[in-house]
Write a structure and sequence with these properties.
Distance between the termini: 53 Å
Helix content: over 70%
Length: 445
C-alpha cells in the first residue's frame, strides 16, 4: 500500500487508530516500567511510544483485512518474545561485576581524570577539524550533505558526545558545580547539531536522565504527582512540537490540511510524523511486499553499518545500501526514486526477511535479551564511579536503536566498546591500568 493510499485509509478511520494507539502505548509503558523504573528513559520512547504507534497501525490494518493472519501472528509472537526476553534478562542473575564491560571499566577507573581530559581534547580536536572541512552555508543548509566524506569523524564524535556529556553531568550531580553542567550542555548541543539527526537532541537529554537515574536511584511510582508530571511533560513536548511544525509547514509550503480538511495543518503534520513510526508496516505487510524482499547475506547486511557501506561494498562487491530491507520495500512502490530513502528496518521485519518466520522469532528474542542485559547493568551499577556510569549510560542509550534498526544499533554499541577498549590500551601504555581489575570480579563498585 503506497503511503498516500494508506493516509487516505487511516484518516478515514483516525478515531479508531487513536484509540488503538493510546491503549497499546499505555499498556507497553506500564508492563515495561517495572524493569525500567524511570519515566524519562529512552526505552519508553523507542518501545512504548514508537512501537505502540507502530503496532496500532498493524492492528488497524489487520482488523480491516489488509494484513493476513500469517504475518499478524508472526509480528504478535515476535513482539511477545522480544518483551519476555527483555523482562527476564533484566533480572539476569549474572552480576554486573562479572561482565567484561565492568572489568574494562575497572581497569581505567583509577585514571578517570586523565582519561576524561584526553577524550575531551580528542573531541575538541575532532570538532576543530570538522569545522575546517565544512562550509557554514552547507552546515546550516543540510548537515547530512555537510557530513559527506566525514563519516568516520562524525561517527566518533557521536559516540564521544554521549559519553562525555554523561560524564560531566555525573560530576555536576556529585559536586553541584555549574561548570560541569555547562560543559555537559555545551557538548550535547554542539554534538547534536553536528550529528544532523533530529533525534540527537532528545538522545542527549535521555543520556543525562539515565545518568541521573543511576546516580539517584529514584524509581518511578505511579501516583497523582507522577501523573501530573507525565501530563505536564507531554503537554510541553506537544506544544513545542506543534510550534516547530507550524513554522516548518510555512517553510515547505504545506499551508493547508490534505487529509483532515477541518484540522490545523500542524496537527495533520504531527500525525503524519507519528504515522512514520509504522511506515515499514503499511508499506511491507500489505500485499505481502515483505515476502518479495531478498537478502542473500543477512549477517553481512547486519554488519554493513558497523564497517560502513562503502567499505563492505569494496570488500564484497555488494551494494548493501540498496539491499537494505527498508530500501527494497520503498523501491517496490517507487522503483524510479533516485533518492536514497526508505522506511526504518525494525527488528521484527529485519528478523523475518533475514531468517524467515522461525528464525525471525529467535532473532527478536535475541534483540530483547541484549537490551535487557544492558538494562540490568544500568540497574545494578549503583555506587559506581563516573567512568562506569558514563559508559553504561552511553551503551544503554546507544543500544536502543537495535529496536528500530538492528544494523545501526550494532554499530552504535560497537563504537562504545571500541572507545572503552582504546581507553584501556591508552591507560595501560601511559599511566598503568589497575592491576587487579580482572582478579576482583566480585568487587563492589
Amino acid at each position: 500500500m503506497r503511503d498516500y493510499v494508506f493516509f487516505d485509509f487511516l484518516f478515514g478511520n483516525y478515531i479508531e487508530y487513536v484509540v488503538y494507539a493510546l491503549l497499546i502505548c499505555s499498556f507497553l509503558f506500564f508492563i515495561s516500567n517495572g524493569k525500567i523504573k524511570n519515566i524519562m528513559d529512552p526505552f519508553h520512547f523507542y518501545y512504548a511510544f514508537t512501537y505502540g504507534t507502530g503496532y496500532a497501525i498493524i492492528l488497524i490494518l489487520f482488523v480491516h483485512g489488509l494484513v493476513d493472519a500469517y504475518l499478524f501472528s508472526y509480528l504478535f509472537l515476535s513482539g511477545t518474545l522480544f518483551f519476555l526476553m527483555f523482562y527476564c534478562s533484566s533480572n539476569s542473575a549474572e552480576k554486573y561485576q562479572r561482565t567484561l564491560f565492568n572489568r574494562l571499566s575497572l581497569s581505567i577507573k583509577d585514571q578517570e581524570g586523565f582519561l576524561l581530559k584526553f577524550l575531551s581534547i580528542v573531541y575538541l580536536s575532532l570538532f576543530v577539524f570538522y569545522l575546517s572541512q565544512v562550509s557554514l552555508t552547507m552546515f546550516f543548509t543540510s548537515r547530512f550533505e555537510a557530513n559527506r566524506g566525514l563519516g568516520i569523524i562524525v561517527r566518533l564524535m557521536d559516540a564521544l558526545r554521549v559519553i562525555l556529556a554523561g560524564w560531566y553531568f555525573y560530576y555536576y550531580l556529585s559536586s553541584r558545580k555549574k561548570r560541569f553542567f555547562i560543559l555537559a550542555l555545551l557538548i550535547s548541543i554542539v554534538g547534536a547539531l553536528i550529528s544532523g539527526a533530529k533525534f540527537a537532541f532528545l538522545e542527549q537529554i535521555y543520556v543525562l536522565c539515565v545518568v541521573g537515574f543511576i546516580t539517584s536511584r529514584k524509581s518511578f511510582k505511579f501516583n497523582l504527582k507522577s501523573l501530573v508530571l507525565i501530563i505536564l511533560i507531554a503537554s510541553l513536548f506537544l506544544i513545542f512540537s506543534l510550534y516547530f511544525i507550524s513554522k516548518l509547514s510555512v517553510m515547505i509550503g504545506y499551508t493547508s490540511s490534505q487529509y483532515i480538511p477541518s484540522a490545523p495543518v500542524a496537527i495533520e503534520l504531527l500525525l503524519l510524523r507519528i504515522l512514520a513510526n509504522g511506515d515499514a508496516y503499511y508499506l511491507s505487510l500489505t500485499e505481502h511486499v515483505i515476502d518479495k524482499v531478498i537478502i542473500d547475506h543477512p549477517v553481512l547486511q547486519l554488519l554493513s553499518n558497523t564497517f560502513g557501506n562503502s567499505v563492505m561494498a569494496n570488500l564484497f562487491n555488494i551494494d548493501f545500501s540498496n539491499l537494505d530491507v527498508g530500501r527494497q520495500i520503498w523501491l517496490h512502490w517507487y522503483p524510479n526514486d533516485p533518492v536514497m530513502r526508505g522506511p526504518t528496518n525494525h527488528f521484527d521485519l529485519a528478523g523475518y526477511t533475514y531468517f524467515g518466520y522461525v528464525g525471525g522469532l529467535m532473532f527478536s528474542a535475541i534483540i530483547g535479551y541484549i537490551i535487557g542485559i544492558v538494562n540490568s547493568w544500568k540497574l545494578n551499577c549503583d555506587n559506581s564511579s563516573a567512568v562506569v556510569v558514563a559508559f553504561i549510560a552511553a551503551l544503554y542509550c546507544r543500544s536502543m536503536p537495535l529496536i528500530l534498526n538492528p544494523s545501526v544499533g550494532i554499530a552504535y554499541m560497537v563504537d562504545i566498546y571500541i572507545i572503552l577498549f582504546v581507553s584501556l590500551v591508552l591507560i595501560t601504555l601511559c599511566k598503568g591500568a589497575t592491576k587487579n581489575a580482572y582478579r576482583h570480579s566480585d568487587r563492589n563498585l
